[in-house]
Write a structure and sequence with these properties.
The protein is mainly α. It is about 70% helix and about 0% strand. The longest helix is centred in the middle third of the chain and has 25 residues.
Length: about 400
């Protein structure tokens, strides 16, 4: 070995995100002086338990890390299998013997994920979804080329990208089967990152699948799993309140309205009390206004029309300009309130406003709300306002958009 010491180990350490010898020592649970000896020109051969930690953290076999095995130890490069463990197409461990990506690849990959997160609120789902899926393909390719801190960073960003792709499939495009598969892969990636809170968020999203289908038992089981993961991490008040809101949505769709209202009341208390923990950056879909939106929908389902109307109008006024997708849902719910209150003209007014918004920003969940309102307006289908709504609901552009999606 040359006078610069064990450059192979040093390069692998830095590529895995351990910028200092102290950081690697902490990860392996050895003294810093031991790492200094490993990075010397004559590194000693570590004991078996330490070898396992090093190869796992750095994604290389011992010889690739610059160690020379004693004569009694067979060479690892020939003995170690190169077959990659996979789970539904995703490589789940670093590949021994490959050249690792630099440590910067983690932040670079995560930066694109963050940008997709922001684009979701304004870019058409049919435009954004292929880009997000391509990004997940890149993440799956990068994962076996990284190790240690870098791999956890890539895995967490990959999990978030899969989560976003599934959200587009479920909420924007109404493709629950595709969302189910995508969220399964998201959970696998979150496991590689060992990110408990991201796992909780993914599991809670999967509860929507049986919840919207009326399978209460399955939805409750998913939420139990989500809460278990949340307890393992430093969960913020908004995250805990969102879990209540998701379960309330599922209970509402399964006809357990009082249970849903109780959950929403608890969510309000949780938000009011707060916690010392900050919310993850990816939790950008929930806050007090969104909680009120959940509550208004459940009040509507409960037949509490004055309360629902007041809640939803307050939500509509409080929505930020970027929240156009949510605006279509609130307008649809307000239309449903007026239809239930036997006010077809006002119901049609809100429904037309929702269609105007959908023309600018498509959102299948919002269109579902409008269709539900139109079914509720059947007793007044010969009224002029309802016929005008039909003209808008079944014009060329809206009809083609709905069938195309």
């Amino acid at each position: 070995m040359d006078s610069e010491g064990n450059v192979k180990l040093r390069a692998a350490r830095i590529a895995a995100g351990y910028g200092t010898q102290e950081a690697l020592a902490d990860a392996v649970d050895v003294a810093v002086r031991q790492v200094r000896r490993w990075e010397s020109s004559t590194p000693p051969w570590p004991r078996d338990a330490v070898q396992r930690k090093l190869t796992s953290l750095l994604g290389q076999d011992m010889e690739s890390l610059g160690f020379t095995p004693p004569a009694s130890v067979p060479g690892q490069r020939d003995a170690q299998a190169r077959e990659l463990p996979r789970t539904q197409g995703m490589v789940t461990v670093p590949v021994p013997g490959i050249t690792l990506q630099p440590a910067t690849v983690g932040d670079d990959y995560a930066d694109v994920t963050r940008r997709h997160r922001r684009l979701y609120w304004t870019v058409a789902p049919a435009t954004l979804h292929p880009a997000v899926v391509a990004h997940t393909t890149l993440g799956c390719a990068l994962l076996p080329e990284t190790a240690g801190v870098t791999r956890r960073t890539v895995a967490a960003a990959l999990a978030e990208s899969f989560l976003l792709a599934g959200r587009i499939e479920f909420f924007d495009s109404r493709q629950p089967a595709a969302a189910k598969e995508t969220w399964t892969r998201a959970l696998q990636a979150a496991g590689q990152a060992d990110d408990q809170l991201l796992g909780a968020a993914i599991l809670a999203h999967t509860a929507f699948l049986p919840g919207w289908a009326g399978d209460r038992q399955a939805a409750v089981e998913r939420m139990t799993a989500a809460r278990t993961y949340a307890r393992r991490g430093p969960a913020s008040a908004p995250l805990l309140a969102w879990l209540d809101a998701v379960e309330a949505e599922c209970e509402t769709r399964c006809g357990h309205i009082q249970t849903a209202l109780t959950l929403l009341g608890h969510a309000e208390d949780v938000l009011a009390a707060g916690t010392e923990h900050a919310s993850p950056a990816w939790l950008d879909w929930f806050g007090p206004v969104r909680l009120a939106a959940f509550k208004g929908h459940t009040q509507l389902a409960a037949g509490h029309l004055p309360q629902a109307r007041q809640t939803l109008i307050q939500v509509l006024d409080a929505l930020e300009p970027r929240e156009d997708k949510q605006r279509t849902v609130i307008l649809g719910d307000l239309a449903a309130v007026e239809a239930a209150d036997r006010n077809p003209e006002k119901a049609c007014e809100y429904a037309v406003a929702a269609l105007d918004q959908l023309r600018r920003t498509w959102y299948s969940t919002g269109m579902d709300r409008v269709r539900e309102v139109r079914r509720a307006l059947t007793p007044w289908q010969h009224e002029t306002c309802v016929r005008d709504l039909d003209d808008r609901l079944y014009d060329w552009e809206t009809t083609v958009s709905a069938l195309g999606r």
